[in-house]
Amino acid sequence: MIAFEVNGQAVQVSAAADVPLLDVLRNELGLKGPRYGCGLEQCGTCMVLLDGEPAYACSREVGSVAGRRVSTVESLRDHVLVRAFLEEQAGQCGYCLSGILISAKALLDRNPTPSRADIVAALDKHLCRCGTHHRILRAVARAAEMLAGAAA
Amino acid sequence: MNAPLPLSVTNNRRLDRWVRFDPDRRVHLAVGKVEIGQGVLTALSQIAAEELDVGLDRISILAGDTEAAPDEGSTSSSQSIEMSGASVRLIMAEVRARVLDRLARRLNCSPGDLRVEDGEFLRGDARTGFDYWNFANAEDLAHEAEGNATPKPYSAYRVVGQSVPRVDLPAKLSGAGFIHDIVRPDMLHARILRQPGRLARLTALDEAGLRRAAGGDYRIVRIGDFVAFAGADETAVQRAAAAAPSHAAWEHARGFTAAQGEAGWLVGRAGAIERIVGDPPTPPDAPVVVEATYSRPYVAHAAIAPSCALAEYRDGHLSVWSHTQGVYPLRAALAEVMGLDKANITVRHAHGAGCYGHNGADDAALDAALIAREIPGHCIRVQWMREEEFAYEPFSTAQSVRLRVAVDTAGRPADWMAEIWAGPHVGRTTFGGTMLAADALPGPKPQTRPFDPPETAGGGGTRNAVPLYDIPAKRVLHHLVTDCPVRTSSLRGLGALPNVFAMECMIDELAARAGQDPVAYRLSILSEPRARRVIERVARLSGWTALGPAGTGHGRGIAFSRYKNRAAYAAVVVELDVDQEVRLRHVWCVADAGLVINPDGARNQVEGGILHAASMTLKEQVVLGPDGIGTLGWDSYPILRFSEVPDVTVELIHAPELPSLGMGECSFGPTAAAIGNAVAHALGTRIRDMPLSRDRIMTALLRN
C-alpha cells in the first residue's frame, strides 16, 4: 500500500508503485478533475499540486508521491478562482480548465498580486484549444483581486 | 400564409418530443443539437424560457438522445441557433398558446386576457390558481406542431438577448462533466491496436510475447484486423496497447511522400469532380489580369481531449455514449457497419472537448460498440491515445485556391474567377465517408463516395469562394479531388478559411495596385449595407488610419466575410510585428449576427474563432511521411499558447430586430486573411501559403 494525502485526506492505495498517479486519482480514488490529455507533459490537463507545486500526474508514478500532499481541482470548489472563472465565463469546452485552475492556484499562493506577464508565464505550459485564453487570464487576475479584497 | 417550418420541426412534429412539464416545477426541454463547447444549450434554454415565460433556472435540457430527444441531424455549420433555435421558439410559442387557449375556454375569457409569469397563469393581475404544472397535460402536448403560433416580438424579450452564464460550466470547473468521467457498472477499459492504414493487413500478432512484455489482466479482442485490449485495470490495458505495435506485423501499412501532404499535390489530380458556381465564363475585355495562388495544408481538429466512448451490449440492445456531433447519424452509421437494426441501438450524447468538426468521436464510438458486442454485459470504455487522435482523426483537407481577376481601368475587379482544388470537406458516413474500424473488419472494404456539400448547404470547398463584392462577373471552378492520401472531413467553416484567406488577400493586392487604402478600396466595391457597416465599425474600433510604409516589421491588415454568404458578417483588423516569426499584438472584430441570444456566449465564440484561426494560420500543418502521419504530438503540431495570444476586442452589432445568423464560424476566415494582409504589410512581401511559419517568413525575406 502507498500512503499519501489527497485534498487534505490521508489515503492508502493498492496500486503498484509504477502506476501513473493520474490513473490512481481517476480510477482508484474517483477524482476525475485531473484529465488525460497527452500523457507526455505537453498539454497540462492532468496538472495537480504536489506539496503545493504544479506537477503532471500523467507521467508521475504513484510510488513517488508516498508521504506527500496531492491536491486536485476538486479541492478548489470553494476557492475564489472557481468563482472568478464563472464570473468571467472563462471557458468554452472546459477540458483544459481543471489543470489551469491548479497552476493558477499555485501562482496565487506564491504571488498573490501577479502581473499579466506572471499569469501568462504560469499558464504557458497549458494548452487551450477553444481560444479562451484572455478570459482565463482575466479570471486569474480577478481572483487575485478578490483575494486582495478579502484580505484588506 | 405561414413561412415554411424549420427542418427540425418538420422532422420532429410532435410537441412532446421537445418539451414536458415535470412535477418539480421544472420544464424539461429536449433538443437534437449538442454542446460541443459553444454554449448552445444555454442559448436554447433562453429561447424556451422566453417563449414559455418561465424563469431560465426552471429549464432542464436534454440534448442528443436517440430515445428521448428530437432528431436534428448534426451540430455543425453554425446552424444551431438558426435551425434549432427557430424550432424551439416556434414549438414553445405553440405550446404556450395551446395551453392558454384551453385555459381561456375553462375560465370563459379570451386568451388575450391571460398572461404567464414564471409559469403561473394570471388573468389581468389576478392569479388563476393554474400554472403549467397543474394545468398543462399530456393531451396538450400530444399534437403535431402546426407552426401557426406567433412567437413574441423581440421588443418583449426579457431573457433572450441577455448575457447569462453557461449552464454546463460549473460542473466542468469542479472536476466532472465529461464523457471521460462516466463510470458505469461492470466497466472495462479498452484500447485499440490501430490498423496502420485502411489497406493494412495484420499478418501476425504475437500475443504470448505481448503478454510477457505487458502483463496484467486483460482480454484481447480480435475481429479481422481490428484488435482491442479490454480489462478492468486501465493501466494494464494501456500498457498492452502501448506494447502491441512492436508485437504486430502488418503488410500494406500506409506510407506517404512528403509532397502528398502539400496542397500543391492536389492541383491537377486526375479524376477530380468538377463543379462550376456563378456566372458563365465570359472573356473579360479588361486589359489587366491579376493572378495568384493561395493554399492551406491539411490541418487537424486537435481536440484537447483524445476521443472517448462507452458502449454496452445487453440482451441484444446496444447503448452507446459519445461526444459525437449527431446521435442519429451515428446510430445510422453503427447500424450499417454492425448489421444491427437501428431500433436496437440507443446513442446518447455526453460532453467531450471542443471538437470544431468531425474528429475521432464517432470512430471511438464504433470501437467501443464492436468490443461491447464481443463482451456482452459489460460497459466498454474506449479512450483514444493522444497520438491515435493525431494519426487517425479525419483531417480538414488541404486546399489550393488560384484566383484570376480581370481589373478595369479604375483598378476595380471586373471579372473574378476562383479555381479550387481540394479533397472532400465532409466525410461523415451519412455523406459517403467511412468509419475507421470498419476498414479493419472482415469482408470487403467499405466503399467511399466522394462528396462535398451542395451550394444549397453553403458548399464545402466552394464555401465563401464567391465574393460579396460588386463585381460584374464572378465564378468558381471547384475540383473535388477523390483520391486524397488521408481521410478528410469537416472542420470549422470547411473551405471558408482558405477561400476567405485567398479572396481577402487578393483584395488587398488589388487595393495596393490601385494605390488605395484597403478599407477605402473594400468600401468602394461593396454596396451591401450590413457588410459595409461591419467594415466601417471595425475600422473605427481599431483606430484605422492610412497604412504606413510596408516592410518595417510592423503590420496592419483588415479582412471581411459573411460566413457562407448567408450567416453572420464579420470584419477583422489585425496588428502584428514580424521579425523571424509573427507576433500578434491586437485583433479587433466587429460581427453582425442579427438577434443575438446570449451576447457573452456569442462573444466567447467570436473570440475563440479568432484565436483558433490565428493558430491555424501561423502554425498548423499535418505532416505526411514514409511512416504515416508525422505530427503525432503537441511538439510536432504546435498550437497558439498563452504567451502568443494577442489582445482581442470584439464588438457585436446590436440588431435584435433581424433574424439570428449563425456566428460560431464567422470570425474564422477573416482572421486568417487579416493576418495574411498584416504580415504582407509588415514584410513588404506576401506569403500566400499557410501556415505563415518561421520557415516561410525566412524564405520570403530572402526572396525580397
Write a structural description.
The complex is a heterodimer of chains A (152) and B (704). Chain A has a five-stranded mixed β-sheet, sandwiched between helices. In chain A, helix 2 (80-87) crosses helix 5 (133-151) and helix 3 (97-110) packs across helix 4 (116-123). In chain A, 55% of the residues are buried. With 152 residues, chain A is α+β, with helices and mostly antiparallel strands. In chain A, strand 3 and strand 4 (53-56) form a beta hairpin. Chain A has helices at 21-28, 80-87, 97-110, 116-123, 133-151; strands at 2-6, 9-13, 47-50, 53-56, 69-71. Chain A is 38% helix and 14% strand. Chain A has five helices and five strands. The mean pLDDT of chain A is 97. Chain B has 704 residues and is an alpha+beta fold. Chain B is 28% helix and 23% strand. Chain B has 17 helices and 26 strands. In chain B, the strands form seven sheets. Chain B has a seven-stranded mixed β-sheet with strand order 9-10-7-17-14-15-16, sandwiched between helices. A five-stranded mixed β-sheet of chain B has the order 12-20-19-18-13, covered by helices on one side. The longest helix of chain B is centred in the N-terminal third of the chain and has 28 residues, at 80-107. Chain B is globular, with a radius of gyration of 27 Å. Chains A and B meet through helix 1, helix 2, helix 3, helix 4 and helix 5 of A and helix 6, helix 8 and helix 15 of B.
